[in-house]
Design brief:
CATH superfamily of one domain: NAD(P)-binding Rossmann-like Domain
Radius of gyration: 19 Å
Order of helices and strands: EHEEHEHHEHEEHEEHEEHEHHH
CATH topology of one domain: Rossmann fold
Strand order of the largest sheet: 3-2-1-4-5-6-10
Number of helices: 11
CATH class of one domain: Alpha Beta
């Protein structure tokens, strides 16, 4: 089997490629990545002899068609994903997340692709205080990031309905683990703690997220690709719901750092209070997360402690 992974030099894409090669070592993998700030060739340096790497933009139809030629499945991870950046400049998010997805879907129409797995986020549902969202719930995105992801989800699903493309959508809760760019909360808090710098926490720190270890997400995406029904959406989550301030305190405890490093800062505009997903649908396919939050957080902290050579150039 030959697969195309867009955004394969980013956080989840990198982990997915490593997962795939461990489980399907005879597969051929083509990676298409623009190598923006969060996509790093270094993430795949030790794998370059086992993959075909193409540096290019998913909005470029010619490069997309070249990358897709001969592939059986497409895993579409490539996206602008940082909420704060989308508030400052939504244009990049519209271009990559919507126009880029459109370009991939158009190319898929011309190729003999058996599966197009579109990777999305729980943020498209918006905030919920009392219940968990199912795949049937309406979308209510709050940020330009989540709005463009919602748009790309609907666009991909429309290509299934209109053109019969073999599209499947996954929506995962917050991922964490190795290779995550240090602007995201968990690696930022780990690295600031290691350098004894202030840990900025938005608002009162009581915003709630459900945390999914990235390798569990990769296994869930694999399960959906293998067993999911085209035209369907599958939520992926671990039911590890914590307030942000709880996560920060857990990291400080692991690293034996003082809580006076915590600094509360002005809240993000439109900051969703709580995300929560129902996962009954994907459970019927046989998937459930294996890594507890305590184990996953310890593994993540240890990885950053052991890979200063990876994060130091970014921080500098």
């Amino acid at each position: 089997m030959k697969i195309l992974v867009t955004g394969g030099a980013g956080f989840i894409g990198t982990n997915f490629i490593r997962y795939w090669l461990r489980n399907y070592p005879n597969s051929e993998i083509t990676v298409l990545d623009k190598l923006t700030y969060a996509g790093r060739r270094e993430n795949l340096q030790d794998l370059l002899d086992r993959i075909q790497f193409i540096q290019g933009d998913i909005c470029d139809r010619k490069i997309v068609s070249q990358a897709m030629t001969g592939c059986d499945w497409v895993f579409h991870f490539a996206a602008e994903s940082h909420v704060d950046r989308s508030i400052e400049n939504a244009g990049d998010f519209v271009r990559t997340n919507i126009t880029g997805t459109y370009t991939l879907l158009e190319a898929t129409k011309e190729e003999n692709i058996d599966r197009f797995i579109h990777i999305s986020t729980d943020e498209v549902y918006g905030s919920t205080l009392a219940r968990s969202f199912s795949e049937r719930d309406p979308l209510a995105p709050s940020s330009p990031y989540s709005a463009t992801k919602a748009g790309s989800d609907l666009l991909a699903l429309s290509y299934h309905t209109t053109h019969g493309l073999p599209v499947v959508v996954t929506r995962s809760s917050n991922n964490y683990g190795p290779y995550q760019y240090p602007e995201k909360m968990i690696p930022l808090m780990i690295l600031n703690s290691l350098e004894h710098k202030a840990l900025p926490v938005y608002g009162d720190g009581k915003n709630i997220r459900d945390w999914l270890y990235v390798e569990d997400n990769c296994a869930g995406i694999d399960t959906v690709a293998q067993k999911g029904t085209c035209g369907e959406i599958y939520n992926l989550a671990a039911q590890n719901e914590f307030e942000n301030i709880e996560i920060v305190r857990k990291i400080l405890k692991i690293l034996d750092k003082p809580e006076d490093l915590i600094t509360f800062v002005r809240d993000r505009p439109g900051h969703d209070r709580r995300y929560s997903l129902q996962t009954d649908k994907v459970a019927e396919l046989g998937w459930k997360p294996k890594v507890s939050f305590e184990e996953g957080l310890q593994k993540t902290v240890s990885w950053y402690c052991d890979h200063e050579d990876w994060w130091k150039p970014i921080r500098n």
